[in-house]
Design goal:
By secondary structure, this protein is mostly beta strands. It contains six helices and 58 strands. Helix content is about 10%, strand content about 40%. Strand 54 and strand 55 form a beta hairpin. It is globular.
Length: about 750
């Protein structure tokens, strides 16, 4: 998530360039969880050693804001999935299963007369439009690379080095049988596409296991353990209990007893003795990493917890603490452990506490603290991107992952370090999550990061991107050209702003994070994109060049809403930031919001009228009267987070809103300009809803997008039916409708964009 543009953006905002505690990805996590259920943020605060300064005020409960710092004693307490996480995961899983049943129903049939047989009615199906890779993606180096989206897990078939599986953060499991030249999605219809761990059975590679719920971010989407018996081509749910709402970090099969599996999760260390069918928690607290002796867990099992490294000699049934020389006191931000397969008494522990990195090496029975670490190592996001990997056949070479990745070489008693991910024109995308070795050649390594998967045949000296065909880009926002649906722009998580130009390979048009964006519908060569917080750039040539619009620095959501109508451009913050000239000077219009309340959705009715929805469910109407902007407070549909607003093109007083905060109705309609609202949620799953659009050709036809699935009504919300045939069970984050070409576009989290003819 960290971008090399951050210092520049911070200077523009007159802020210090010092990264916020936990990195800006932590702010994004708090925002993501808070808009669904603020109690989910209690889970984050309860298990991460974060100072109160890192607890972004918006979206946090009073309990989370004022909770005591995590202590060693509290970190080791057994934990179950919180009621909030378990409830949300259960409802999303139920909705996904319901969508699956609707997709299996046969297509409607026409009545055929005896005179003439009509062709069968083919079902309307969503089609992927990419990105199937984005060339010219960003690095910290001098080169550009092909990128896709966040990869959190990589597994290489121990019997076939060409056979690779990757787990995408929210995009499911993908399989390649040709060393990453081509990819195919394998879990699109499973209950959750958030993947935290993937592992082959080393004794029988046809058996593969995966943990759903990405521990690094999407832990709330945990839906259990998945299993494949054909090498990862097809999958079933092996176990749901006790993993609803739980995120995975690691999953290991015991080589000596392959029916035994070990799991490192956000809720502790778990063990299964029946090939993943049932599980029991053996130690509570945050567990990040597991290393099992080649001769099995009854010889030695090392596990990394928030309160330290622990060892077991009975397969994880009981643990004893590992004493590390010079180990600081306190709770770890992140801890990783690994051993050398060919010399299993050689092991490494890599940790971060209070923004300081620590590394230890064991040789025989003796642990030694390594005091010489890579110069310039950035560990501000250690909770999010972190690993240690020992070279399987070389006890003197180890790899460390943080924002950058490093290779360490021991010669005698001296360590030398090489940054292998940011190295001039041989750089790859930052934010390292995992590293895996080829089973037949330890010089061949695979790195998983926010930009996708990369392969090196020489231990990281040079790299090749394997992201072509890997459609796992996390799209946050969409905007389109009114003259053709075959031009779209999208803001993405950590992969900049990208553009669809009619082919599955999209163009990278702006660096940094990709926030909300907009197109001047009256002059579509003029487009706008944001990064995060209050930021905005304008291009008058569809992204070939950009000019910074330098909006004023006000408090806002991590991704504040942006709206464009002709020369009227607006950004939602503590005040409405608006211009009527397409750029500076900016006007700040006070909104009179409550403490910790912010705009979360906006929609232009026309150049003089803007509707604003807030994080607390309030609706404001802003109108330009020729000299100034005036504010009218409308009725509130519900005191919960408004995620999207749509205005009926045929009736500017009919509004629709979606609600992403659980606990009541999820879609509301007003037929009188916001004076009153009708709950139109009957038949919709009680899960977060993220976007709504109205058919410009039929005001009764409306589509809404949820954390899983798209739904359609043909009668103003009286009845809703699934509209998801062909759509994966990824989070549907945004919708736009192209009036001229009659195309509906859905942007998803980690499964790219999808289109359907309507």
């Amino acid at each position: 998530m960290r971008s090399k543009l951050d210092p520049k953006l911070n200077r523009q905002k007159t802020r210090k360039a010092t990264p916020p505690p936990g990195g800006k990805v932590l702010q994004r996590l708090f925002t993501y969880l808070g808009r669904r259920n603020p109690a989910l943020n209690d889970d984050v605060v309860a298990r991460l050693a974060l100072p109160k300064a890192a607890r972004q005020k918006f979206g946090l409960t009073k309990r989370a804001l004022h909770a005591k710092a995590v202590t060693v004693a509290s970190a080791r307490k057994p934990r179950k999935a919180s009621r909030a996480a378990k409830s949300l995961a259960a409802t999303i899983t139920k909705a996904a299963k319901s969508l699956g049943k609707s997709k299996k129903k046969s297509a409607p049939r026409r009545r055929v007369s005896a005179r003439a047989a009509l062709p069968p009615v083919l079902p309307v199906v969503w089609t992927s439009i990419g990105p199937n890779g984005v060339p010219n993606g960003q690095t910290y180096g001098t080169n550009r690379v092909d990128v896709s989206g966040r990869v959190g897990a990589i597994a290489v078939d121990p019997g076939d080095p060409k056979h690779i599986l990757v787990g995408a953060a929210g995009g499911g499991i993908w399989e390649s049988t040709d060393t990453g030249a081509t990819w195919a999605p394998r879990t699109d219809q499973l209950p959750s596409l958030a993947i935290g761990a993937v592992t082959f059975d080393p004794t029988n590679p046809s058996r593969v296991y995966a943990g759903s719920g990405e521990g690094n971010f999407y832990f709330n989407l945990g839906a259990g353990v998945y299993k494949s018996t054909n090498g990862g081509t097809t999958w079933t749910v092996a176990a749901v209990v006790p993993f609803l709402g739980v995120g995975f970090y690691d999953l290991v099969v015991d080589r000596q007893n392959p029916a035994t599996l070990y799991a490192a999760t956000t809720n502790g260390f778990f063990k299964s003795t029946n090939s993943g069918a049932t599980w029991s928690q053996k130690r509570g607290g945050q567990c990040w990493d597991i290393s099992v002796h080649p001769n099995g867990g009854t010889v030695e099992l090392l596990a990394a917890f928030a309160d330290g490294v622990f060892a077991s000699s009975n397969g994880g049934n009981t643990f004893s603490p590992v004493s590390l020389p010079g180990m600081p006191g306190g709770v770890w931000t992140r801890l990783a452990v690994d051993r050398v397969a060919s010399s299993p008494d050689v092991a490494y522990v890599f940790g971060c506490m209070n923004s300081v990195a620590f590394l230890w090496r064991r040789s025989g029975a003796t642990w030694t603290k390594i005091t010489t670490l890579p110069a310039g190592m950035n560990v501000t996001q250690a909770w999010y991107d972190w690993y240690v990997m020992a070279t399987p056949n070389n006890p003197s070479v180890v790899f460390l992952g943080a924002i950058d990745g490093y290779r360490g070489t021991l010669s005698g008693s001296t360590w030398t370090w090489k940054d292998i991910t940011t190295q001039g024109n041989n750089s790859i995308h930052p934010d390292q999550h995992c590293l895996t070795f080829s089973p037949n050649n330890s010089s061949v390594i695979y790195a998983g990061c926010d930009g996708g998967i990369f392969r090196s045949g020489n231990s990281g000296a040079t790299w090749a991107a394997l992201n072509k065909g890997l459609a796992i880009t996390e799209l946050e926002y969409l905007a389109g050209d009114p003259t053709t649906w075959k031009w779209l722009m999208a803001g993405t998580q950590d992969n900049g702003t990208v553009a669809f130009v009619g082919t599955p390979v999209w163009n990278h048009i702006a660096d940094g994070d990709g926030g909300d964006c907009g197109v001047n519908q009256l002059s579509p060569n003029t487009i706008y994109h944001s990064y995060y917080d209050v930021s905005l750039e304008r291009s008058t040539n569809k992204g070939a060049t950009w000019t910074n619009m330098s909006p004023p620095n006000l408090s806002s959501l991590f991704y504040p809403p942006v709206e464009v109508f002709g020369s009227t451009v607006a950004i939602g913050a503590t005040s409405l930031i608006v211009t009527r000239t397409g750029g500076p000077p900016w006007k700040q219009v006070p909104l009179g919001l409550a403490a910790n309340e912010l705009p979360s959705a906006m929609r232009d009715v026309d150049a003089n009228t803007i509707v604003i929805g807030t994080t607390k469910g309030n609706v404001l109407l802003m109108k330009w009267n020729g000299t100034t902007w005036t504010k009218t407070t409308l009725a509130s549909p519900t005191p919960r987070y408004i995620s999207c607003i749509a205005v009926d093109p045929s009736n500017p007083t009919r509004f629709w809103v979606t609600i992403s905060q659980v606990g009541g109705g999820v879609v509301y309609r007003s037929d009188n300009g916001g004076s009153s609202w009708v709950n139109c949620s009957t038949g919709l799953a009680p899960i977060p809803f993220n976007a709504v659009v109205v058919d410009p050709a039929d005001f009764k036809r409306v589509w809404v997008a949820a954390d899983v699935g798209v739904y359609q009504t043909l009668n103003l919300g009286t009845v809703w039916l699934p509209f998801s045939l062909g759509l994966p069970n990824a989070m549907a984050a945004d919708l736009i409708i192209h009036k001229q070409d009659r195309m509906l576009i859905c942007g998803t989290r980690n499964r790219g964009a999808w289109a359907i003819k309507v």
